[in-house]
Amino acid sequence: MEFDMRAFAADCCRHRSTAGEEAPAAAFVAERLADLGFETHAWDADPALLADHPSFPDDLDATAVEGRRSVAGVLELGGASDAGNGDGAGGAVGEDDDDPVPTLVLNGHLDVVPAEPSEWSSDPFEPVWRDAEGRLIDDAAGGDGVGETLTARGAADMKSGLAACVGAAVDVRAGVADGSIDLPPSGLRLVVEAVAGEEDGGYGAATAALATPYPFERDAAIVAEPTELRPVVACEGSLMARLEIDGRSAHAATRWRGEDVLPRFEAIREAFMELEAERGESVDHPLYERFPVPWPVVCGRVEAGSWASTVPATLGAEFRIGVAPGETVSEVEAAFRDRLERVAADDPWLRERPPRFERFSVQFEPAEIAVDEPVVEAVRAGLVATGLPDVEPRGATYGADSRHFVAAGIPAVLFGPGTIDEAHYPDETIAWGQVVRAREAIAAAAERFANDAAA
């Protein structure tokens, strides 16, 4: 069966797979993978398992996790067991534990962030194709994709990357069958994953890392996040923490009788920004020198007071604080807690009523692999093999599901089409030519990975 990557990406984008709504998209992907001859697997996020995971809160809401379906398709390719098998398929999954097959995971996430229709020029979940001149075209009318774009929620982050993974796996199978791809006797096992809950911290990937859904080991992974066709080997972590301050209310006409929380919050926020600047100078990492603020601190939410004519006596604020590769969330939390205690020590009111600073939501531990890991070198070789420039690996200031692979001892590199600048934005768009090139590069990387593993 032929794989129509354009139709797959467009149909996948039509699924409104926001948090908790991934199941229909997962069913669609599983059906398409089965039609293409993949052996399919499925698993749901496990709230009991995730509650013991350091990334997730101990009181994880089971209702927000249950039913978050992830799916995968497996191809066994090449190898000695392939003799006489013209379609390029190998033996049964995991049938030969004495001669393990190198296994490469091609990973993408199904979930997308919500889209506000009023901010879009078209329905966010009705894909729009345009040619190189910006004219609307039918989604089935494309040629080589040069100059064309796809606009939809999830087009860049990251359903087009998932489509490239499926296409790459299909291409490797076809290349083995027609002899254009030469795999070693050990062959290659390709796993295409479509996971749920990445935007919520990685429900699907974390569950699979802790309790594998496969009867075989995984050797490495390519996570097809939008990296502009550049390998990313380091992902920043983040501490999510909630600050609470208590003051004393008073009538606005006699505000001097109250204890206003707002100046105290500003003093704390200023101290945190000073620490951000200090950490930017003291916490060095060669892959992050290009960023003006390598370990950002953002207060994304503040709520204070109860009435315009009353001195605000309570304040709650939520911070996202960057964690460098090589650090831990706990270490960074301790540094900011210490800075908070210094501010409180200088304020008589806060000395008696210390601010509270506690984690909430999901924590992202940083993740990093060596630039000379075989999967990284395979990706770089794939770029060259398909006529793209070899580029040095980079670091990213965001987190991704790669950290769950790395934590499980599975080297994972981010590499995919599109730019992170389009992620979560209105009129999210991807240049389709990059998707085509990603498919080619990932296929070439898979071939290189198999041969390097056998060397």
From TrEMBL:
Annotated region (Disordered), positions in chain: 76-98
One MF term in the entry's GO annotations: hydrolase activity
Keyword Hydrolase: yes
Source domain of life: Archaea
Domain Peptidase M20 dimerisation: start-end pairs: 237-346
Keyword annotations from UniProtKB, A to Z: Hydrolase, Metal-binding
Protein name per the record: Acetylornithine deacetylase
Organism: Halorubrum sodomense
